[in-house]
Specification:
There is one protein chain. Helix content is 44%, strand content 19%. The strands form 2 sheets. It has a 5-stranded parallel beta sheet with strand order 5-4-6-7-8, with helices on both faces. The protein has a 3-stranded antiparallel beta sheet with strand order 1-3-2. A hairpin with a 6-residue loop joins strand 2 and strand 3.
């Protein structure tokens, strides 16, 4: 994953001439920096993504990097509907799984940035999903969020497996904002 782009690379992504990118840079619309002692310009990935979004341009090869990927496991219809309404399709690609088996298949194909697991599907199955994700090096930095029911005692399992836990009932907007914040933080560190 490239973090710094030349004007030529940005031109290919945007399907414009390199001179156009230089004009965007020189006018201050596209942020970046110049190489000391040179006229060469460099554009950090996050500035390029922000520029493309602000101007309604397609993200092209950066789309996978810019969009968050969310896997909802065992989430009931109401919560799922609220989350997908708040976390729009432009922001997040969202997939659903009803069981641990489905969660494994979806995780393998989606490579999610965040997995939200509802303990209503069964405490043992929810913990097994979380443990399997944490054991796999490919998902070491994946954000894990647990949704605990009122009657589910949070004691008796390693809460450090999860980045966050929410106890039902909870505000879906708060959960969505927390997902957004944790995923954005993860992407900035990557």
């Amino acid at each position: 994953m490239r973090t710094i782009f030349t004007t030529g690379q940005v031109a290919k992504i945007c399907k414009v001439a390199p001179r156009t990118v230089s004009k965007w840079f020189d006018s201050g619309r596209l942020r970046g920096y110049r190489i000391p002692g040179s006229q060469d310009r460099r554009i950090p990935r996050e500035h390029l993504i922000r520029f493309l979004k602000e101007h309604g341009m397609p993200l092209g090869e950066l789309e996978d990097e810019a969009m968050g990927k969310l896997l909802l496991v065992g989430i009931d219809g109401a919560v799922r509907g609220n989350l997908t309404a708040i976390l729009t399709a432009e922001e997040f690609k969202t997939e659903f799984a009803a069981s641990g088996f489905e969660a494994g298949i979806q995780a393998e194909s989606l490579h999610p940035d965040c997995v939200v697991i509802d303990f209503a599907m069964g405490r043992n199955e929810a913990l097994m999903i979380a443990a399997n994700l944490r054991k796999n090096a490919d998902y070491a930095d994946t954000v894990l969020i647990a949704l605990l029911s009122d009657d589910d005692n949070a004691a008796g399992f390693d809460r450090s497996m999860f980045n966050e836990t929410f106890r039902k009932p909870f505000d879906s907007a708060l959960l969505a904002e927390r997902v957004r914040t944790l995923v954005n933080r993860k992407k900035q560190l990557a």
